[in-house]
Amino acid sequence: MAHRVPGRRAVVAAGLKKAATGYWSKRTFGVYHELGVSSWGKLKADVVAVNRKGHIVIVEVKSCWADFHTDHKYHKYLPYCNQFYFVFTDTLWASHSDRIVLPRECGVLVLSSTTGLVEAVRPSTNRKMEPSVKKDMVLRMAWRAATYSKYQGTRRTRVFLQTQ
């Protein structure tokens, strides 16, 4: 019986998210974490990257086999991006790549335990997005990047200026 380290999955997921962020930001994409892509946040993407041309990439982080094997919602993300990727650790990919069956349109990123960098081992196909969906996604990102909003914990404050 393997010893389970408490919180290990969360640590691995955070590392994968950070590595995917570095991968896309190196390619001049702006990156968002946990961005709600559908109404009322019913569907949140782990990593969303967008470049200046409006090309949107969604990356789903998979920290272990069970996380991937039980996820049946990834296809719901496809309308919200031009490209879709999964990111895995190299040990997960090496031990389960023969069992991981993905649609051709889904790409695979793998985090190397030797270099600490993400590598694209399978490219994603480039898909067209509905213009209204793309506009909605860009507006969500713009709103999320706001310095202040009602939902970012900013409270209304009273301001009194002393004039002389």
Task: Write a structural description.
The longest helix is centred in the N-terminal third of the chain and has 19 residues. Strands 1-2-3-4-5-6 form a 6-stranded mixed sheet. The protein starts with 7 loop residues before the first helix and ends in a 20-residue tail after the last helix. It has 4 helices and 6 strands.
Strand and helix map with partners:
Elements: H1 8-26, E1 30-36, E2 44-50, E3 56-61, H2 65-69, E4 83-89, H3 90-96, E5 106-111, E6 118-122, H4 131-144
Parallel strand pairs: 3-4, 4-5
Antiparallel strand pairs: 1-2, 2-3, 5-6
Radius of gyration: 19 Å
Give the averaged pLDDT, no decimals. 87
The counted number of beta strands is 6
Percent helix range = 25-40%
Shape: globular
What is the rounded distance between the termini? 75 Å
Summarize the structure.
The protein is α/β, with parallel strands linked by helices. It is built from 4 helices and 6 strands, in the order H-E-E-E-H-E-H-E-E-H. The longest helix is centred in the first third of the chain and has 19 residues, at 8-26.
Attribute tags:
164 residues; alpha/beta; six-stranded mixed beta sheet; 4 helices
